[in-house]
Amino acid sequence: MNQIEIRWEAPTPEAFKALYDSTGWGPISREASYYAGALAGSWCTRAAYREGQLVGFVRVISDGHLHAFITEMIVHPDFQRRGIGASLLSSLLAACHEAGISDIQLFCARGKAAFYRRHGFVPRPDEGPGMQFVAALSG
Questions:
Q1: Among this protein's residues, is 116 annotated catalytic?
Q2: Contact present, 51 and 3 (Cβ < 8 Å)
Q3: What are phi and psi of 2, to 5 degrees?
Q4: Is pLDDT larger for residue 123 or for residue 76?
Q5: How far, in Å, CA of 87 to CA of 8, rounded?
Q6: pLDDT tens track for 82-115
Protein backbone atom coordinates (compact mmCIF):
# COMPACT_ATOMS: atom_id res chain seq x y z
CA MET A 1 0.00 0.00 0.00
CA ASN A 2 2.74 2.44 -0.90
CA GLN A 3 1.72 6.07 -0.55
CA ILE A 4 -1.82 5.26 0.60
CA GLU A 5 -3.17 7.31 3.50
CA ILE A 6 -6.11 5.95 5.53
CA ARG A 7 -8.35 8.58 7.14
CA TRP A 8 -11.16 8.07 9.61
CA GLU A 9 -13.25 11.03 8.51
CA ALA A 10 -15.67 10.81 5.62
CA PRO A 11 -14.59 12.23 2.25
CA THR A 12 -16.25 15.21 0.65
CA PRO A 13 -19.49 14.45 -1.18
CA GLU A 14 -17.76 15.35 -4.45
CA ALA A 15 -14.94 12.85 -3.87
CA PHE A 16 -17.42 10.17 -2.79
CA LYS A 17 -19.52 10.77 -5.91
CA ALA A 18 -16.45 10.46 -8.16
CA LEU A 19 -15.44 7.17 -6.50
CA TYR A 20 -19.02 5.86 -6.55
CA ASP A 21 -19.32 6.75 -10.23
CA SER A 22 -16.22 4.61 -10.93
CA THR A 23 -18.21 1.52 -9.87
CA GLY A 24 -21.09 1.94 -12.31
CA TRP A 25 -23.52 1.26 -9.42
CA GLY A 26 -25.68 4.32 -9.76
CA PRO A 27 -26.67 6.99 -12.22
CA ILE A 28 -23.80 9.41 -12.89
CA SER A 29 -26.41 12.18 -13.14
CA ARG A 30 -26.82 12.26 -9.34
CA GLU A 31 -25.60 15.47 -7.74
CA ALA A 32 -22.91 15.46 -5.04
CA SER A 33 -25.55 16.69 -2.57
CA TYR A 34 -27.27 13.31 -2.91
CA TYR A 35 -24.10 11.68 -1.55
CA ALA A 36 -23.79 14.28 1.22
CA GLY A 37 -27.01 12.95 2.71
CA ALA A 38 -25.75 9.38 2.52
CA LEU A 39 -22.45 10.28 4.18
CA ALA A 40 -24.28 12.11 6.99
CA GLY A 41 -26.08 8.87 7.89
CA SER A 42 -22.86 6.93 8.38
CA TRP A 43 -21.92 5.60 11.82
CA CYS A 44 -18.29 4.92 10.92
CA THR A 45 -16.16 5.51 7.84
CA ARG A 46 -12.68 4.83 6.53
CA ALA A 47 -11.23 6.46 3.42
CA ALA A 48 -8.06 5.73 1.46
CA TYR A 49 -6.25 8.46 -0.44
CA ARG A 50 -3.33 8.48 -2.84
CA GLU A 51 -1.84 11.87 -3.59
CA GLY A 52 -5.04 13.55 -2.41
CA GLN A 53 -7.36 11.41 -4.57
CA LEU A 54 -9.97 9.23 -2.87
CA VAL A 55 -9.19 5.69 -4.08
CA GLY A 56 -11.08 3.62 -1.52
CA PHE A 57 -13.95 4.03 0.91
CA VAL A 58 -16.02 1.93 3.28
CA ARG A 59 -18.86 3.01 5.55
CA VAL A 60 -21.20 1.51 8.11
CA ILE A 61 -24.73 2.33 9.16
CA SER A 62 -25.31 1.21 12.73
CA ASP A 63 -27.21 1.74 15.96
CA GLY A 64 -23.81 1.59 17.63
CA HIS A 65 -24.70 -1.37 19.83
CA LEU A 66 -26.46 -4.34 18.24
CA HIS A 67 -26.22 -4.18 14.48
CA ALA A 68 -23.92 -2.79 11.80
CA PHE A 69 -24.44 -2.83 8.08
CA ILE A 70 -21.61 -2.16 5.66
CA THR A 71 -23.28 -0.19 2.89
CA GLU A 72 -20.39 0.64 0.60
CA MET A 73 -17.02 -0.96 0.19
CA ILE A 74 -15.43 0.67 -2.82
CA VAL A 75 -11.92 0.61 -4.20
CA HIS A 76 -11.35 2.43 -7.47
CA PRO A 77 -10.80 -0.16 -10.24
CA ASP A 78 -7.31 1.22 -10.93
CA PHE A 79 -6.30 0.54 -7.30
CA GLN A 80 -7.84 -2.88 -6.64
CA ARG A 81 -5.75 -5.88 -5.61
CA ARG A 82 -3.27 -3.74 -3.67
CA GLY A 83 -4.53 -4.43 -0.13
CA ILE A 84 -6.48 -1.19 0.16
CA GLY A 85 -9.86 -2.86 0.57
CA ALA A 86 -8.49 -5.31 3.12
CA SER A 87 -7.02 -2.47 5.19
CA LEU A 88 -10.20 -0.43 5.05
CA LEU A 89 -12.40 -3.39 5.95
CA SER A 90 -10.14 -4.56 8.79
CA SER A 91 -10.14 -1.08 10.32
CA LEU A 92 -13.91 -0.82 10.09
CA LEU A 93 -14.47 -4.28 11.58
CA ALA A 94 -12.17 -3.36 14.47
CA ALA A 95 -14.28 -0.27 15.16
CA CYS A 96 -17.44 -2.41 15.22
CA HIS A 97 -15.87 -4.93 17.59
CA GLU A 98 -14.58 -2.15 19.88
CA ALA A 99 -18.18 -0.93 20.14
CA GLY A 100 -19.31 -4.45 21.05
CA ILE A 101 -21.14 -5.02 17.77
CA SER A 102 -21.01 -8.62 16.62
CA ASP A 103 -23.87 -8.65 14.08
CA ILE A 104 -22.17 -7.16 11.02
CA GLN A 105 -23.83 -7.58 7.64
CA LEU A 106 -23.26 -6.33 4.11
CA PHE A 107 -24.37 -6.44 0.53
CA CYS A 108 -21.72 -8.10 -1.59
CA ALA A 109 -21.11 -6.79 -5.08
CA ARG A 110 -21.28 -9.36 -7.84
CA GLY A 111 -18.04 -11.31 -8.13
CA LYS A 112 -16.62 -10.09 -4.80
CA ALA A 113 -17.80 -12.88 -2.44
CA ALA A 114 -14.34 -14.49 -2.25
CA PHE A 115 -12.88 -11.24 -0.90
CA TYR A 116 -15.42 -11.12 1.93
CA ARG A 117 -15.04 -14.82 2.69
CA ARG A 118 -11.31 -14.24 3.22
CA HIS A 119 -12.27 -11.66 5.83
CA GLY A 120 -14.69 -13.82 7.83
CA PHE A 121 -18.02 -13.26 6.07
CA VAL A 122 -20.29 -16.09 4.98
CA PRO A 123 -23.42 -16.05 2.81
CA ARG A 124 -26.69 -15.95 4.73
CA PRO A 125 -28.56 -19.25 4.53
CA ASP A 126 -31.81 -19.31 2.59
CA GLU A 127 -33.71 -20.06 5.80
CA GLY A 128 -31.92 -17.25 7.66
CA PRO A 129 -33.53 -13.95 8.53
CA GLY A 130 -33.48 -11.06 6.15
CA MET A 131 -35.32 -9.97 3.07
CA GLN A 132 -35.05 -7.20 0.52
CA PHE A 133 -37.94 -4.95 -0.55
CA VAL A 134 -38.44 -5.09 -4.32
CA ALA A 135 -42.12 -4.16 -4.84
CA ALA A 136 -43.09 -0.75 -6.15
CA LEU A 137 -44.06 1.77 -3.48
CA SER A 138 -47.75 2.59 -3.53
CA GLY A 139 -48.96 5.99 -2.85
A1: yes
A2: yes
A3: -55, 130
A4: 76
A5: 12
A6: 999 999 999 999 999 999 998 999 888 888 889 9
